């Protein structure tokens, strides 16, 4: 059994090991570094209060807490207006801006415009620390649903990008 | 590279930015610093406070019960009411009613005896601080009806019926018991 000093050392170690990962999970939802760091602070504050007794998968558990806190924060801060993220077909093409960067930004806006049940599996799949099973645990859905939703999200994005750029399959 | 591959690459690049997101340097130290500033909180601290509160409440109840037992009971309590003198009704006195009315009033006041309930000896403590009465039993003032009766006797001493002479034994009327007739029998016996 850990005494107080060992417990503190173990907790500090877990903060140093997982805080960046927790940040990424929060950032995937919030897309804002400042808000994401607030979520990281809140996650470890809760862990400090409640302990990690009985937790088998610490990264998955931390990701779940971070995801839920980020979702709460998103809903409190603003109701996302999907129309704002829709890709405007007549968006002015500034020659000074790199074409590639513009396309990546378009993808980000399209991702933000996806419905939540498709967006979050896609965003979390971008984190190499989380596998499909862990994503399923974070979102509370089966692993098979995670994979199908990621595929659907990618397909929707491709279709929208093709429509926007005028490319054909 | 065809268009589909280009889109895949574009998607992969956009998504990689989610994975590559990095906080400002020193996030771990900031998290730990904030936790150090938080007041110490253990999961069992709530239980500790709850147990302390329960002990305190039990102690307060014990003290209250002890205080209640030590303090003398107020006159309004049932035990003290039992200690109050009880006025008994007037008994029939064989003394002749034709006696002096002033004697009657004195006798009446004496006959209004004072009795203490048996509760006085049932283990309850009497109030030792109460002043001891000069006369035992404690004289009890006459009620309004008794005073009126005595005053009436003072005014009209002849009003009292004189049935017997002083010192004579009271005359008891003879009681005759008649045999039961058939009509007096209860109806249940005929059945």
Tell me about this structure:
- The complex is a heterodimer of chains A (169) and B (191).
- Chain A has 169 residues and is mainly alpha-helical.
- In chain A, 74% of the residues lie in helices and 0% in strands.
- The longest helix of chain A has 27 residues, at 4-30.
- Chain A starts with a helix and ends with a helix.
- Helices cover 43% and strands 2% of the residues of chain B.
- Chain B has helices at 3-19, 27-37, 45-70, 78-83, 101-111, 144-155, and strands at residues 86-87, 114-115.
- In chain B, helix 5 packs antiparallel against helix 6 (144-155).
- The interface between A and B is medium-sized, with 39 and 28 residues.
Blueprint of the fold:
The complex is a heterodimer of chains A (169) and B (191).
Chain A: H1 4-30, H2 33-50, H3 58-77, H4 82-85, H5 99-113, H6 116-125, H7 132-139, H8 143-165
Helix pairs in contact in A: 1-2, 1-3, 2-3, 3-7, 5-8, 6-7, 6-8, 7-8
Chain B: H1 3-19, H2 27-37, H3 45-70, H4 78-83, E1 86-87, H5 101-111, E2 114-115, H6 144-155
Antiparallel strand pairs in B: 1-2
Helix pairs in contact in B: 5-6
Could you write a compact summary of the structure shown?
Chain A is mainly alpha-helical.
User: What Rg of chain A, in angstroms, do the CA atoms define?
Assistant: 19 Å
Q: What fraction, in percent, of the residue positions of chain A are helical?
A: over 70%
Strand order of the largest sheet of chain B: 1-2
Alpha carbon gyration radius of chain B: 48 Å
Ends apart, CA distance between termini of chain A: 61 Å
Structure keywords:
heterodimer, A: 169 residues, mainly alpha, Rna Polymerase Sigma Factor, Chain: A, Arc Repressor Mutant, subunit A, 2 domains, 8 helices, 74% helix, elongated, B: 191 residues, two-stranded antiparallel sheet, 6 helices, 43% helix
């Amino acid at each position: 059994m850990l005494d107080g000093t060992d417990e503190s050392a173990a907790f500090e170690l877990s903060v140093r090991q997982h805080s960046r990962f927790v940040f990424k999970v929060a950032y995937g939802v919030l897309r804002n570094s400042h808000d994401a760091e607030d979520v990281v602070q809140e996650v470890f504050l809760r862990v400090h209060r409640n302990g990690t007794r009985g937790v088998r998968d610490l990264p998955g558990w931390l990701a779940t807490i971070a995801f839920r806190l980020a979702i709460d924060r998103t809903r409190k801060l603003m109701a996302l207006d999907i129309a704002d993220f829709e890709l405007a077909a007549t968006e002015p093409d500034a020659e000074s801006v790199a074409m590639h960067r513009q396309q990546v930004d378009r993808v980000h806006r399209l991702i933000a415009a996806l419905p939540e049940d498709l967006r979050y599996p896609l965003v979390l799949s971008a984190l190499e620390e989380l596998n499909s099973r862990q994503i399923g645990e974070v979102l509370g859905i089966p692993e098979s649903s995670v994979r199908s939703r990621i595929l659907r999200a990618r397909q929707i994005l491709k279709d929208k990008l093709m429509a926007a750029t005028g490319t054909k399959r | 590279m065809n268009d589909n591959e280009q889109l895949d690459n574009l998607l992969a690049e956009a998504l990689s930015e989610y994975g590559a997101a990095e906080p400002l340097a020193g996030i771990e130290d900031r998290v730990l610093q904030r936790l150090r500033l938080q007041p110490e909180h253990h999961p069992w601290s709530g239980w500790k406070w709850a147990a302390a509160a329960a002990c305190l409440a039990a102690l307060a109840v014990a003290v209250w019960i002890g205080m209640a037992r030590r303090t003398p009971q107020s006159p309004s309590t049932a035990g003290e009411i039992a200690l109050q003198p009880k006025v008994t009704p007037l008994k029939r006195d064989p003394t002749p009613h034709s006696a002096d009315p002033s004697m009657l009033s004195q006798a009446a006041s004496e006959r209004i005896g004072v009795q203490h309930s048996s509760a006085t000896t049932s283990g309850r403590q009497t109030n030792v601080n109460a002043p001891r009465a000069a006369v035992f039993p404690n004289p009890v003032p006459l009620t309004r009806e008794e005073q009126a009766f005595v005053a009436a006797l003072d005014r009209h001493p002849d009003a009292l019926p004189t049935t017997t002479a002083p010192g004579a034994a009271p005359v008891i009327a003879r009681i005759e018991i008649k045999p039961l007739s058939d009509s007096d029998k209860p109806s249940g016996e005929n059945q």
